[in-house]
Automatic annotation (TrEMBL):
<comment type="function">
    <text>Involved in transcription antitermination. Required for transcription of ribosomal RNA (rRNA) genes. Binds specifically to the boxA antiterminator sequence of the ribosomal RNA (rrn) operons.</text>
</comment>
<comment type="similarity">
    <text>Belongs to the NusB family.</text>
</comment>
<dbReference type="InterPro" id="IPR006027">
    <property type="entry name" value="NusB_RsmB_TIM44"/>
</dbReference>
<feature type="region of interest" description="Disordered">
    <location>
        <begin position="1"/>
        <end position="26"/>
    </location>
</feature>
<dbReference type="InterPro" id="IPR035926">
    <property type="entry name" value="NusB-like_sf"/>
</dbReference>
<keyword id="KW-0805">Transcription regulation</keyword>
<protein>
    <recommendedName>
        <fullName>Transcription antitermination protein NusB</fullName>
    </recommendedName>
</protein>
<keyword id="KW-0889">Transcription antitermination</keyword>
<feature type="compositionally biased region" description="Polar residues">
    <location>
        <begin position="1"/>
        <end position="10"/>
    </location>
</feature>
<keyword id="KW-0804">Transcription</keyword>
<dbReference type="InterPro" id="IPR011605">
    <property type="entry name" value="NusB_fam"/>
</dbReference>
<feature type="domain" description="NusB/RsmB/TIM44">
    <location>
        <begin position="26"/>
        <end position="148"/>
    </location>
</feature>
<dbReference type="Pfam" id="PF01029">
    <property type="entry name" value="NusB"/>
</dbReference>
<keyword id="KW-0694">RNA-binding</keyword>
């Protein structure tokens, strides 16, 4: 009997399975669910938060990032809507609740989570839109957040554009 080298699928410490979600991605998904509920019901954010925390798998998310997004978006919703409103073709209140929630989340990360590169913040919002939004909702989210990034992170966007030349 011969021993063969470990296959590429063998479990290595710290290795992620293809398609495995990071704790940060899970926190965005949980926050999105809470924001969606909040936008639809107008319920107190404390009750929404408690309900979201009861969901299966919540313990696997980055809870600090979840808290920052959920409560940050709610606290800054009017300001974030003002930023987004400059780049939408209609009032943000007229958007589908899921796209509105995704745009709020993306705008929040662009404005307040400067440790996350702007392209990553936008890409994460796109992934949420692809998973939870309408058929082509991710295209709308991409266009709005690309333009909002110019307002919220002008130096970073300009530097990225110069690097591509």
């Amino acid at each position: 009997m011969s021993t063969s080298p470990a296959s590429p699928k063998s479990k290595q410490p710290g290795a992620k399975r293809p398609g495995a979600k990071s704790a940060r991605r899970r926190s965005r998904e949980a926050a999105l669910q809470g924001l969606y509920q909040w936008l639809l019901t107008g319920e107190d954010i404390g009750a929404v938060d408690a309900h979201t925390r009861e969901q299966e798998g919540f313990a696997r998310c980055d809870q600090a990032h979840y808290d920052a997004i959920l409560h940050g978006v709610v606290n800054e919703a009017a300001d974030l809507d003002a930023v987004l409103g400059r780049h939408t073709d209609r009032k943000t209140t007229e958007l589908s609740p899921i796209e509105h929630a995704i745009l709020l989340l993306g705008a929040y990360e662009l404005k307040y989570c400067v440790d996350i590169p702007y392209r990553v913040a936008i890409n994460e919002a796109l992934e949420l839109a692809k998973s939870f939004g309408g058929t082509d909702g991710h295209k709308y989210v991409n266009g709005v957040l690309d333009r909002a990034a110019i307002d919220l992170r002008p130096q970073e966007v300009q530097a990225a554009r110069q690097d591509r030349r």
